[in-house]
Model the fold of this input.
Amino acid sequence: MAREFRYGGQAVMEGVMMLGKKTSATAVRRPNGEIVINSKPRSKIYTGRLRQIPFSRGIIVLIESLILGINSLFYSANIALEEEGEDVSGRSTWLILAFSFALAISLFFVAPLFLAKMLDPYIESSILFHLVEGAIRLFIFLIYLKLISLLPDIKRTFGYHGAEHKTVNAYEDGVELHARAIKDYSTAHTRCGTAFLLAVLIIAIVVFALVGRQAVWLMVLSRIFLIPVIAALGYEATQFGARHMDNILIRTLMTPGLWLQSLTTREPEEDQVEVAVVALKEVLAGDKQTSEQSTVEVSR
Done:
């Protein structure tokens, strides 16, 4: 039996992107209050056989999330800023994103290594060294989340993040997709990207410990080139946990990820929930239409 598809998405500027079986949809509220939708079919690269194979699917999901997330962010920013006559696009934007990725790798993977190396004379155990490095990485991550949560624009985006979670939680509970019916649901979700990032940070400790204390240049390379491996493991761990929340041990292990979402989500306003509902309804309609077309083709 095919596993039930699990819907999800991410917050963008003044909107929400939802991912369906065969389509993705980004709903954004214009400055004048109107909600506009950009719906696109998902590439077969992301829905084919590789998407079903353990560990490789984590890499596929990561790539798709980055590409869809960037495109949705560009779209939402252009819609949200259209009254100001601004346009977010072009080579300069991609350069900024490339710089952002390089900064993220440097901040969360390379910098903790060098900070831990400063304590090298006082740490004899290789395991303790990697635990210290992991603790530093987690501390930097928490400080980063706390600082960006203070920015007004990010606060509002975190509201849309909460709206996305509430909407998916309500859908999975079989509730009618209406803003007022959804308002009492939690802003936390077990499959959230924040929980995934926490899993990545913890798994990184184990993976880098296996590399051991090598020459600095080799450890730096490992912090860069092993990111896809760690991401694949993090994806599997997060998905496994989400499927087994009825197990008390699994639920306990997943709890820190749910707590951490208090830094990346906020209680949304009703109009933000409305945008998330529009996005989810769009992908549900797109998946239904695709399914009906497939049934007709088979019957012929």
